[in-house]
Amino acid sequence: MTQQAVMDDSPGGNAPGLSKRNASQVAAASLVAALSNFVLMFVGTRTLSDAAGTEFLAFWSLLTGLFGVISGVQNETTRAVGAVAEGRMRGVRAVWPALIVGGVVAVIVAALAPVIAHRVVPLSASTAVPALVVIAVAYAAYVTLVGSFGGRGWWPHYAGLLCAEVGLRVALVMLVFVAGASLGGYELACVGATAILLVYLVASPRARQAIASFADAGLAAMVRKNALAVVSTTSTAILVTAYGAVLKGFAHGADPLLLGGLILAVSLTRAPIMIPLTSFTGVAIKLFLKRRDAPFAAIAKPFWALIALGLVGGAAAWFVGPWFVGFFNPGYQIAGWVFAALTFSSAFMAVLTLLGTMVLALDAHVVYSAGWLVASAVALVILVTPIGLALRVVLSLSVGPMVGALVMVGWLAVYARRSRPSENVSG
Fold first, then answer.
1. C-beta atoms surrounding 126 within 10 Å
2. How many helices (H) and strands (E) does the chain have?
3. Are 213 and 81 within 8 A, CB to CB?
4. How many CB atoms lie within 10 A of CB 3?
5. DSSP at 231
């Protein structure tokens, strides 16, 4: 197969770069996603009982955690489809290995059903658990489309799909609210938004073309790479999106108001940084690929921007946080220092995410997995220590990401040192 034949898979040859307008569209989609997170949590905690509201927060955390796990497929699809668009040989169509990995995730969720039903969603197990099993496969198909849009450089479609999925979820939740608020109804509404995939495939020729995109490797190799990416994003999800569900599982039997307040506080302090950063993952991979010879130079500005955002956000959260969490449920009482510490710790999480994206762009999947696995292991060990629950959560979400980041920084330093001589030779 000739290179020209490969490049014809993406109209116009190489995938177009990210313009300022495209970046603005992705940023707008990220903002919509972050705001919708607040809307869903507000509706759930305001219209349900304390116990049901806490369970909805745990379910939403578990669902977004599952989304986070499967987002590894999106990352790998973006890389693989982008590589074909840049001239690499075609392999398998990206959707097939994605569906295989999604099916494996669904089987694992089904195997964990007794634990999930008993410790995380006991009030709605009959609805929540089957929904989680089904969505594992459906979301794998959805992120394949998102990743293919990103890999081909079709950023307006990428941003439009993100906005449409979020918008449908909010609309379905509001429909349940109008029809009569119920825990099971809210859960099904949150899951049902992935049906936007079908709408796009029926209505958009570009979507049908993107879902048929080729990866740069065969089926077995792509399944392996997707699986490695999912292992890595599983660790990511434990620390970022699924942490509330993990906390509920570890603190089973705790006061619903204390537990609900902490889960909400973690979600509120993560969302402003992590949701936009996660949405920009595909963009970041494309940009880092162009500066793979200077990894630290590529991440320097975003690193300091994230630290500054964490400091400013932490200072503001000390005063605003306790009032804001009470706005969701007057019974939630979280101290200002807890909000400040959780907000600043989100900067560590964001730095770990940024470093992981750079490592992934350099195709170092094992290092990516190792950094997040170490971070998650440290966080979970701290979470089971016999200290106050609030302090335990703060330390867990601060120390874990810092240790994981050090693992990735160490590898990047070795990579940068090894690449320097080759630059000199080529120059």
1. 11
2. 18, 0
3. yes
4. 11
5. H
Residue 39 tokens read as 């809307």
What residues have CB less than 8 Å from 18, skipping those under 6 apart? 26, 153, 155, 283, 286, 287
Place of tokens 């001589």: 421
Sequence-distant (6+) residues with CB within 8 A of 85 are 7, 9, 10, 14, 15, 151, 152, 153
Instruction: Tally the residues of the chain.
Output: 427
pLDDT tens for the chain, residues 1 to 427: 333 333 333 333 344 555 667 667 776 777 777 788 888 999 999 999 988 998 999 999 999 999 989 988 998 999 899 989 888 889 999 999 999 999 999 999 999 999 999 999 999 999 999 999 999 999 999 999 999 998 898 988 998 999 999 999 999 999 999 998 899 999 999 999 999 999 999 999 999 999 999 999 899 999 999 998 888 788 878 887 888 899 988 887 777 888 888 988 888 887 666 655 655 555 666 666 666 666 677 777 777 877 887 888 888 888 888 888 888 888 888 888 998 999 888 888 888 888 887 887 777 878 888 898 899 999 999 988 888 888 999 999 999 999 999 999 898 888 878 766 544 444 4
The span from the CA of 323 to the CA of 343, in Å, is 15
Task: Return d(Cα 359, Cα 294) in angstroms, integer.
Answer: 12
Distance separating alpha carbons of residues 222 and 207, to the nearest angstrom: 21
pTM of the model: 0.80
DSSP code of residue 217: S
Nearest to 332 by CA among 267, 274, 283, 377: 267
